Amino acid sequence: MTGVVVVVAKEIRKTKQKLFSMEETRLSQKIIRNTISGQFAYVCSMIVGLVVTPYIVLKIGIEQYGLFVLVEVVVSFLSLFDISGINTSFVKYIAEYNAKRDSNRLNQIVSLGFVYYTVFWLIICILAYCLKVPILSFFKISPNLMHQASFVFDGMLIIAVLQGSLSIFRSILIGLQRMDVTNGISVISSILYGLTTFIVLALNYGLVGIVINSIVLAFLRMAAQTIIACKTTEWLRFKVRNLNREMFMMTLGYGVRLQVANFAELATMQASKFILGHFLSLKFVGYYELGSKIASVARSFAVQLLPSLFPAASELDALHDKQGIRMLYYRGGKYMGLVAFPAFLFVFSQAYTMISLWMGNKGYDYSILTVQFLCVGYLASVITGIACGIARGMGKPELEMRSSLIVAALTVSLSTLLVIKIGFLGALIGTSVSIICGSIYLIVVFHRLTKLPFFCFDIVKAYGMPLLASILGSVALFLVGDMMPVSQGNLSLRYWAFFCLAVRGVIFLTVYVSTLLALRCFDQYDRTFFGQIGQVFLSMTFKRPLK
Q1: Cβ neighbours, 10 Å, residue 499
Q2: DSSP letter at 451?
Q3: What is the pTM of this model?
């Protein structure tokens, strides 16, 4: 009898292990699918942006480009008035209730989101329209550009209403871990934006044409997301009676904490543009924006993993799978390091070459400095982003909130003080130092919350090997730099810069990959994981279902 019990116990344990392995594989496939589609969407958006931006600057000038960027940032700050922040909680609760198959709660979330944010954005944008003159007067805008600034402001308000009122349908797709759909829409939108922007500028419609084009594309993008979300969900039943106080209070409790973090992050990323626009001129806003776009190339390649972690961590937390969360943190950190360190170090070392390739002539020294300073700060932010994404999914947004408040307060105070003292460079120093300080705080409190060790073999291996390989790759570029100076060459500057960048990229990747292989960075789990990436990629490419 005892032997039978032992055999049955062993079979039960084997069955549990098999089910856990199947669940782990299913979750990893979701993360892979969402990450691959996110990377593809970002690459398309990046290519379109890099191609279109120089043409925009050429056709409308750096000052009007700075005006467009500044007004866009001003309108984005209208979200600061959303004190409730319930929009930030939709993804978590949609993922959680979908895992529990609770269609009633899902419908309550959707109904609440649609009604609340339709009303909210209409009221906020009407108020902003009434205060348009004093808002625009805060910045040093030339009198001859004030009429265009007013038109751009109105156009951005229309886009804000469209995106805000229908944002719940995008949250549905993300919460269901169907970011491949939202990313597919993003790809199509990016391509259409590039083509239509070239046409608008070629016809000499200028800044006004760019704004009208952006409104049309925003409408098409949000309509596509709404229609697909409605067709994807069998449980979606929008009814006014689904609105209830309990759901609002629950999302409010989570959303307020996360919204504070979003406010602070928005202030961190955009505060320098406000400060430069007020104390210096629109021209410096344009230079800063150009440099931040290049730095964001490295940042965005790495952070594509983070949106997939949020719903995945929510699902694991709902199932009380602490071991799964631990593995998600270690493995996510390793793969983040493999992408982030080489991306940032390469962009930092090749800032001059990239700006030369992109803009095609000299006179962008301020943008080059922006690239290098922001790369340092963004790297710190991205490396700690794994902890941030998992904490969100675990229902602990206060960690990110406190960290973001520290960063925002330091950014505004340091950048303002330093811009007054030393000019443009002060904004770069203030932003980078502030991000580093906030990132250190975040990683410390996350490890205290999860009781994970600060230093262990898994963490050292996850970050140490990619960092060492990236440093060796950068050293190799430094040694060959004098052999291929961008300022020389018989071809035009852009062609020569492209040739130099391509050759240096090959050298960097060769040294980087060779170092990782020599250090035996990849284990059996990694090889299996990369095999799953291949399977998911093929299934997405040829529309074959995953097993």
Answers
A1: 15
A2: T
A3: 0.63
Is the separation of the CB atoms in 148 and 70 below 8 Å?
no
Let me know if 273 is exposed, middle or buried by CB neighbors in 10 A (0-12, 13-18, 19+). Answer: buried
**Amino acid at residue number 501:** L
In single-letter form, the type of residue at position 155 comes to G
Distance of alpha carbon 212 from alpha carbon 151, whole angstroms = 10
Beta carbons of 55 and 201 less than 8 angstroms apart = yes
SS3 state of residue 118: helix
**For the chain, give me the number of helices (H) and strands (E)?**
20, 0
- Map tokens 């006179």 to a residue: 363
Cα(318)–Cα(105) distance, integer angstroms: 15
Tell me the average confidence (pLDDT) per consecutive run of 10 residues in the chain, 547 residues long: 39 43 53 65 78 86 84 78 63 70 74 80 88 85 85 90 81 73 83 92 90 92 85 66 63 62 67 83 85 82 59 58 70 79 89 81 81 89 78 70 82 90 90 89 82 70 83 84 52 70 87 87 69 57 47
Q: Which of 259, 78, 49, 269 is nearest to 160 (CA)?
A: 78
Query: How far is Cα 101 from Cα 99, in angstroms, rounded to an integer?
Result: 6
331-353 b/e with 16+ CB inside 10 Å = b?
A: bbbbbbbbbbbbbbbbbbbbbbb
Residue 525, CA distances (Å) to 32, 367, 531 in order? 14, 41, 10
The tokens for 148 are: 């265009």
